[in-house]
Amino acid sequence: MLHEVLPLESGEELVNPTLHYAVYGRLNAARDNAVLVCHALSGSAQVAEWWPQLFLPGGLLDLERDCVIGINIFGSCYGSTGPQSIDPATGEVYGPTFPLINIRDMVRVEAKLIESLGIARLKLAIGASIGGMQVLEWAILFPERVARAISIGVAPLGAMGLGLNHLQRQAIMLDPAWKGGYYGDGPQPEGGLALARALGIISYKSVPLFEQRFNRKPNRHGEENPWISTSAGQNGRFDVAGYLDHQGEKFNPRFDANSYIAITRTMDTFDPVRGHESPFVAYSRITAHLTLVGISTDWLFPPEDIRSMAAIIRAAGARCDYREMASVHGHDAFLAEPEQLVRLLTPVFE
Amino acid sequence: MLHEVLPLESGEELVNPTLHYAVYGRLNAARDNAVLVCHALSGSAQVAEWWPQLFLPGGLLDLERDCVIGINIFGSCYGSTGPQSIDPATGEVYGPTFPLINIRDMVRVEAKLIESLGIARLKLAIGASIGGMQVLEWAILFPERVARAISIGVAPLGAMGLGLNHLQRQAIMLDPAWKGGYYGDGPQPEGGLALARALGIISYKSVPLFEQRFNRKPNRHGEENPWISTSAGQNGRFDVAGYLDHQGEKFNPRFDANSYIAITRTMDTFDPVRGHESPFVAYSRITAHLTLVGISTDWLFPPEDIRSMAAIIRAAGARCDYREMASVHGHDAFLAEPEQLVRLLTPVFE
């Protein structure tokens, strides 16, 4: 817990916030072997649970060599201060009044934590999606404190991504169990959160992947027939519908609706050049070796946006290379094809 | 009204259904100048209201020459039998028990209507989206009764489209005002229908179009600031969010939630080869001059799916050419860029 008032870019503040973090491996004597792994929307500080492939033999990280740190972002429900926390100002749970967290707010507090561990300079900061947003702001805000940075599958959200986030929040708030965000200890808006998650999943996948996996097959579980009516005007589900419903259902027990709203709003804020005199002034601050990774079929963060951003960063004089995963998996490729990601990034370390 | 029992592919039936249709211009003495214009999801028989550009000077149709007929599809709320109609079997409004209508059911009853008007052979059947689905089934089911067919922006829905339709229905049914579909004369599930429409709109547009129009600008109406919190944890909307909310709001007064569910289910059923011995047997029935039009940025009905379908149809021995609209507008290009569509199709008539 930080015993202080943390000012936020929105003008609000967090009083005595808690940061939950995890450490794998050991800091060496020089404290120069620290790797910060930043997590995405529904991730946690427990990096080994949601991105275990980084740690495999021949992977990017080696716990005999590296000290890996994961930090849970504000707004989440995995230990750090979020909507389920008590607001010291009121003594009540924040719920929907949890303040708007900017990616920069998160990175600034992460930097405090890293500093408190006696780490002057991270060996590496790596992350994908919202994790990649944090990595890029690390490289801009704290250039001397990160040697190497890898940001995967991310650029400022375009209008399509902003629209999709908006509709995911609308789905949650449509659910009568939402109660304006004050569902408290009661049942959370499960239907709305499931629908939001399903829509998010659609944005993390791709048209060709869905075609390969599901095509026009009926639901593989049970005996559903989409060609006839069932009771109350429903008809049997196609396979993709069964998949989407299942993804929504299994998300509910592990995530909080207010957190989903808070974190998608944070995702919307990411804009590394905002507030700087110019993109060149912002990006010329970067001294880390920066690698940006795009994914060929990612339609949430199109690879051409990431490639363009890399070009601007290089034009600003920073060292930045762009690499692309050729994958049918869309945005999720960084989790779905870890071997390809490792192959792509291994030269970065050599 | 048809005084008969109409058997449906689902095994259900429609008793004494009503077909609402509109006629523009006049049938000539030979009754060979009839053009059937099939409408899409939220369209009506009133072709001149939703696709007026077809009728402009230099357009595809000329009311001095052609007799244009529009027919409202079952399940809709613009005059033909749909969920708001009385079920003769119960004396109650169908509501959510409206039977599953297959595109072929629709085309068979359209053929009856056309026949009842003394028209032995349509000069042209043209339609886009669900309208294009009807056109293709016309060409297969009634080859001798249509001379020329133009099907725009459509192929059997792939898994992504099936998934999107499923989530649109889930949105409607999540709304507490849905009441299982029995909202009757009471307020309809407006929040759910607005959300469904907004998600549909996203599928009819494209990432580059959204980028051009909205980018990361804040809402152009009012003074919304996405960078700060407002009351109850909301923040100001980005421009794209204002647009999507507006599209949803203006849809409610003109459409019915049960109809939206019924028609998206119909859209899911489209599969011109299903039930035939093979695709070749199905498509070799076609004797009309058939033109399929794809749209370059359409991600709901990807142009490569339509091009492939055209190739199979030609391989089956039918006359089928494929043309592509180069447009940033996505699926909606057939409405958004009518001049280009006319230019593309004019050679078809020459």
Structural domains of chain A: how many: 2
CATH overall fold name of the largest domain in chain A: Rossmann fold
What is the CATH top level name of the largest domain in chain A? Alpha Beta
Number of helices of chain A: 12
Radius of gyration from the alpha-carbon trace of chain A, in angstroms: 21 Å
Please provide the ordered H/E string of secondary-structure elements of chain A: EEEEHEHEHEHHHHHHEHEHH
Q: What is the helix content of chain A? A: 25-40%
Based on CA inertia axes, which overall geometry of chain A fits? globular
Number of strands of chain A: 9
Q: If classified by CATH, what would the architecture of the largest domain in chain A be?
A: 3-Layer(aba) Sandwich
Protein architecture, described:
2 copies of one chain form a homodimer. The longest helix of chain A has 16 residues. Chain A folds into 2 domains: 230 residues, 3-Layer(aba) Sandwich (Rossmann fold), CATH 3.40.50.1820; 103 residues, Rna Polymerase Sigma Factor, Chain: A, CATH 1.10.1740.110. Chain A is of the alpha/beta class. The model of chain A has no long low-confidence stretch (mean pLDDT 95). In chain A, α2 packs across α3 and α4 packs antiparallel against α8. The two termini of chain A are 38 Å apart. The first copy, chain A, contains 12 helices and 9 strands. Helix content of chain A is 37%, strand content 12%. In chain A, α10 links the parallel β8 and β9. In chain A, the strands form 2 sheets. Chain A has a 7-stranded mixed sheet with strand order 3-5-4-6-7-8-9, sandwiched between helices. In chain A, strands 1-2 form a two-stranded antiparallel sheet. The radius of gyration of chain A is 21 Å and the shape is globular. Chains A and B meet through α4, α5, α6, α7 and α8 of A and α4, α5, α6, α7 and α8 of B.
